[in-house]
Amino acid sequence: MKYCWSLEWEKCLTWIFACVLVCRFLYPFYFNPVDQLWSDFKAHWEIGADLLSPHYGNGTDPKAYQVWIYVLRKLAADNNRSIISLITGLLCASLPYFWYRALREFCTRKTGLLYAILLGAHPSFLVMYGYFMIETVVLPATALAMWMTFRSARKQTLSSCMIAVVCWLITGFTKQMMVPVACIGMAYLLSFQPRKFQTFCGMVGLFTVFALPAGWHTYKAMGSVSPFGYAGRENINRDSGHTSFGLDMWDTRTGERWSYGWSSSSFYINPLEPLGNYTSYRIKSPYIVTIDLAHGMQDWDITIREAAQQHTFYERLKDIYENAIYFMFGPSWPDSDMHPGRPLHFLNWQLRWVFVFCITAILAFTPVCRMERPKMFITCIAFVMILLMLFQQTGVMEGRYRKPLEPFILLGTIFIAGSLLRRNRDDKSVSLREFIMESLTGGLSGKLLR
Questions:
Q1: Measured CA distances, 350 to 102, 268, 333, 359 (Å)
Q2: At 448, is the secondary structure helix, strand, or coil?
Q3: Nearest-angstrom CA–CA distance, 227 and 173
Q4: Reduced to 3 states, what is the DSSP secondary structure of residue 430?
Q5: What is the percent of the chain with per-residue pLDDT over 70, rounded to a whole number?
C-alpha cells in the first residue's frame, strides 16, 4: 500500500513538472521579449547585431550573450516573432529541466522532481523571459554546467569532464560575476579526475580557445584585452559617489562623438518597504567623464584613478552597508513591480523576502553543517558567492545581480534544513571545511551518492 502511494505521488509530480515545462515554454509566446526593446534590452538587441563590428557597447559587455543575440537575430531574420518565441520558450523550459537532470545525479526521482518544480514555478526564473536579459542565458547555462559536472563525477572520463568545462566557460563568458562560480565548478571537476595533469591541460587549452577571440573582440572595441568585458565603467560608477553616470566619448582621429548615461535601478526604489525606509547616501546628480578613444586606455585609467581617489574610507564603509541592503532586500529589475497590476511581477516583488531568510540561513549554518558532497558543492557555491557579493567593490549592487545565485541559495537552504533535521550522520557527509580542503587537494573520490 505504501509503495503504491509512493508510486502515485511520483506520477503526480511528473505531471506537475510536465505542466510547469509547458507553461514555461508558452510564456514567451504571450510575453515576447521583442515587445520590450528599451533601456538595457534594446542595447543588448543592438549590440548583438554589431557582433562582427564591435564598438564601445560590445567592449563592456560579456561575450557569450552577444553571440546568443547575434545567432537569435540571424535565425529569426531580425523580426520573426514566432521563431524568437520558440527559441526563447525552449530556453525558458530548459532551466528547470537541466536542474532536474543535475539533481537526479544524486537525488531520488521524487526529490529531484520536487526541487525542479520549485525552481520552475518560481516567478524570479520565469518573468525575466519576457525581456532580453543576460540572466535568461546564464541561468540555464549554469544549470547545464551543474548537470554535466555531476555527470562527469559519475563517469570520471576525460571527455565528460571537458564537456562540463565547456559549459562552465560558457557560463563565465556570459556574465562576469559567474567567473568565480565557474572556477569553483572546475576545481570540483579536477578534484575527482584520475588523470589530473591531462585534465588541467585540457582546461587551460579550452580557456584559451574562449579567451583569445573574446579578448581580441574587446581590444577592437575598447583597446583593452579583457576577455570577460571591460568593467571600467562599473568601477567609475561605484567610486564616483553619485547616483548617475555620464560618459562623453569622442575619437579625435575620426571626429566621431558619442554620449551615454546610466543610473542603477536600486536608487529609485525603497528595498525595505514596507518594513522600513532606505535612501542611498550618494549625490543626486550625474558624474560626467570624458574619454578620447584615440588615447587608447590612457583616459580610462586616469578617470578610474580620479574616481577612486575621491572615494574616502568612510564612503567605502557606507558602500559595504548599502551593498548588503541592495543585495539582500533589493528586487530584481525589471521583472519585479510593487504594484499589483502585473500579478507575476508583483509576486516576484513580494518573494524577495524569501531570499533574505535564505541568505541568512546559509551564512549562519553552512560552516557547521555536514552533508553529502554534491549538496555541499551547491551550498558552498551559495556561501562563497554571497560573501563575495556582499563585499564586492566592482559596481553598484542591484537585486538582479542576486538572480544567477538564487537557485543555489534556494537549494542550499533546503539542504541545510535537511542536514539540521537529520539525526543520523552519514559517514560520506562532509563539513564545509573538509569539502574545501578535499577540493583544493584533489582528494574527492568523485563517487556521488544516489
A1: 29, 17, 13, 16
A2: coil
A3: 8
A4: strand
A5: 96
